[in-house]
Write a structure and sequence with these properties.
- The protein has 201 residues and is mainly alpha-helical.
- The chain folds into 2 domains: 1-53, Arc Repressor Mutant, subunit A; 59-196, Tetracycline Repressor, domain 2 (Orthogonal Bundle), CATH 1.10.357.10.
- The chain is built from 9 helices and no strands.
- It starts with 9 loop residues before the first helix and ends in a 5-residue tail after the last helix.
Length: 201
């Protein structure tokens, strides 16, 4: 995660977000209390509420910061490659790196959304929007050269399928606590890509 500046105003806020990130990811949102976040971040209660009027506000701030960092890395990785197949492989390399760094904890966005049963929750709305942004990056930056070659419906179907394989693989890796769902999804994505150009039957 990026760090904010070292000014007296920004440092407590960043400590709160860093602490919440660790606790939300390890314990879950509902099992993490505000008092624990305050104690472990080393800030005063008044300082916490000055930055975050509620725990939900803190959760959204954490998701925004996580998205900024994740999206930057995602774009940098795929933009290094000239072919769609290599860009897809780069996408899955991110999952392998995330598994190594964070363990089989899955997707922080999906984990967070799963703790809110209300479909109108701002948390769930943010996660839906985040996932839509990921899907659009796959369509517009990973598969961009395929758009002109395919009918719009076929292209959208391809983008949806590759996005679903990619996003679902990290969840199944969490479920099985193994790498094989990521490996299987990568192979299936490459086959879909080849099939869309008639390279395989």
């Amino acid at each position: 995660m990026k760090t904010m500046g070292s000014s007296p105003v920004s440092r407590p806020r960043e400590r709160i977000i860093e602490t919440a990130s660790r606790l939300f990811f390890r314990q879950g949102y509902c099992s993490t209390g505000i008092n624990q976040i305050i104690n472990e971040s080393g800030v005063a209660k008044a300082s916490f509420y000055a930055h975050f009027p509620s725990k939900e506000d803190l959760a959204i701030a954490w998701l925004r910061q996580r998205e900024e960092s994740w999206m930057q890395q995602f774009k940098e990785r795929i933009d290094q490659h000239q072919s769609a197949a290599k860009r897809i492989a780069a996408m899955y390399t991110m999952w392998y790196d995330q598994i190594r760094e964070e363990g089989y904890r899955g997707c922080g966005f999906v984990n967070m959304a799963g703790e809110f049963s209300n479909e109108e929750s701002p948390i769930r709305a943010f996660v839906r929007d985040h996932k839509d942004r990921v899907r659009k990056i796959i369509a517009n930056r990973v598969l961009n050269e395929y758009r002109a070659e395919m009918k719009p419906d076929d292209f959208n179907e391809l983008a949806d399928a590759i996005y679903s394989l990619f996003d679902g693989s990290i969840i199944q890796a969490q479920n099985f606590m193994q790498d094989w769902p990521v490996e299987a999804a990568l192979k299936a994505s490459i086959k879909l890509l080849a099939h869309s150009r008639g390279e395989i039957e």
